[in-house]
């Protein structure tokens, strides 16, 4: 379960960055501008998701 949560966290981080930055890097200024503003709006929920996934990863981590 821990490995699956780590993969979800990786997809969560990379997916957000890709969705908010890829259009402007490809030269689509109108779509890129909308994506950047959408990225700003969804930044706080994205951070909450990161902390929730981090907590779940720590909770399912095997004790050493």
Structural class: mainly alpha
Strand content: under 5%
Overall tally of domains: 1
Morphology: elongated
Strand segment count:
0
Indicate the mean pLDDT. Answer: 84
Query: What share of the residues lie within helices?
Result: over 70%
Rg from alpha-carbon coordinates: 15 Å
Main beta sheet strand tally, sense and closure: none
Give a structural overview:
- This protein is mainly alpha-helical.
- It has one domain.
- The chain contains 3 helices and no strands.
- It has helices at 2-25, 29-41, 43-59.
- α1 runs antiparallel to α3 (43-59).
- The longest helix is centred in the N-terminal third of the chain and has 24 residues, at 2-25.
- It starts with a helix and ends in a 5-residue tail after the last helix.
- The relative contact order is 0.18.
- The model has no long low-confidence stretch (mean pLDDT 84).
